[in-house]
Design brief:
about 0% strand, 5 helices, mainly alpha
């Protein structure tokens, strides 16, 4: 997923944070997820990187869930259940 960005400047302009900051966030999230997996639960279909990118893209652009779901091949039906 990250390979679609050509360089750090493009990453920053599209996502809104530096690539190094993004990778530090991924490290922190991986540690937190490892602790959570000790408890159990369903595995995620998307990687931590993909989930973080989704969040950052939403916060930067305020895209609709429909657009985000399309980008990440997520079935929208799950998002529409109340």
């Amino acid at each position: 997923m990250l390979d679609k960005y050509k360089d750090e400047n493009e990453f920053y302009s599209l996502i809104g944070i530096k690539y190094k900051t993004f990778m530090k966030m991924v490290e922190i999230l991986k540690e937190a997820e490892a602790k959570q997996k000790q408890i159990g639960g369903r595995p995620n279909k998307l990687s931590i990187e993909q989930r973080l990118l989704m969040s950052l893209e939403y916060w930067k652009e305020y895209s609709t869930y429909r657009i985000i779901a399309k980008k990440y091949n997520i079935r929208l039906l799950a998002l529409l259940i109340y």
